[in-house]
Amino acid sequence: MKKTLIQLTLATLVTLTSASTHAQKLKVIAAYPYIASITQEIAGNSVDIESLANAKWDPHFITARPSFIAKLRNADLLITNGAELEIGWIPPLVNQAKNLKLGGDGTLDLSRYVDLQEIPQEISRKMGDVHPSGNPHFHLDPYNVIPIAKAISSRLIKLDSANTANYEHGLKIFLQKWNEHLQNWEKSMASLKGQNVVQYHNLFHYFLHRFQISSVATVERLPGIPPTAEHMIDLEKQIKNNHVNIVIQDIYHPDNAAKIITQKLGLKLVYLPHDVGAASHTENIFALFDEIVRLMTHD
Q1: Last-in-domain residue among 184, 211, 227
Q2: How confident is the model over 22-31, as pLDDT tens digits?
Q3: Domain at 244, CATH number
Q4: N or C: fewer beta carbons within 10 Å in the chain?
């Protein structure tokens, strides 16, 4: 009888220990919502995923909060955009979190898995707030989402090999769906091929470049520098000379200058979301590009 009780007790302990281990999910912190969305698509319920930045904030200037430190302190993996986009806020937070897991494989820099464009030959203050490593908004080329997803899946497998099959299957399904959406986006955007546009900030360079649309000027005078009256006069000339019909405005910069020039010249003003959750109908990475394409092609 005693032997049976001991066996039952040991069996119960093993079961409880196994259940506890199985229930412990990988804690992933993403710098931006688009990263969290891709990770969630791949991992499903196998991870706990949170984004630090709010989708409606300017991704260049995120105000660090004490709650961010607590999240990083408990993280198993930190996934950043990279290309120095987070240089002003992520490194100080990581230092304060003092989480040894975030060294080495515990941090994933997505910029290392794509070809960065617009890398400046020289850097000076007269150029405005330029990015030394190149334009960091590479996730807005939908084709760059493929290597990003593969990199995330690979890192999850490395840190959580027990769920390898789940991550591999999640990546496979994600890429199948993504390729189907790519075909639809290409068909829709074909009508804009060869057109010239103006952006407020050079945020959608990768998206426009992918679909062979030229961004001939920006409403801001220089990166991070608001337009002046003199710049607006010059911009009007560039718009007329390049037969521009569309001005793209992001959701976090002031839009008064864009409104003035589009109303004056009878142009189409398009407000484009840059991240998952930045506007209505952008609840995940698929919906984000669906909405960008819809807004660009809608009359």
Answers
A1: 184
A2: 458 999 999 9
A3: 3.40.50.1980
A4: C
The number of angstroms, rounded, from the C-alpha of 292 to the middle of its chain's C-alpha atoms is 14
**Are the beta carbons of 153 and 42 closer than 8 angstroms?**
yes
How confident is residue 131, by pLDDT bands cut at 50, 70 and 90? Answer: confident
The reply to whether 142 and 207 lie within a common domain is no
Question: Tokens 């990279």 label which residue?
Answer: 82
Among residues 184, 215, 238, the one where a domain terminates is: 184
Is the pLDDT at 205 greater than 70, yes or no?
yes
- The torsion region of residue 64 among left (phi > 0), alpha (psi -120 to 50) and beta comes to beta
Global pTM value: 0.91
Least confident span in 16-30, 46-60, 137-151, 176-190 = 16-30
Cα 220 → chain centroid: 22
Give me the helices (H) in 30-103, please.
33-43, 66-73, 90-97
Domain that holds residue 222: 193-297
Residue 246, helix vs strand vs coil: strand
Given a cut of 70, is residue 165 above it in pLDDT?
yes
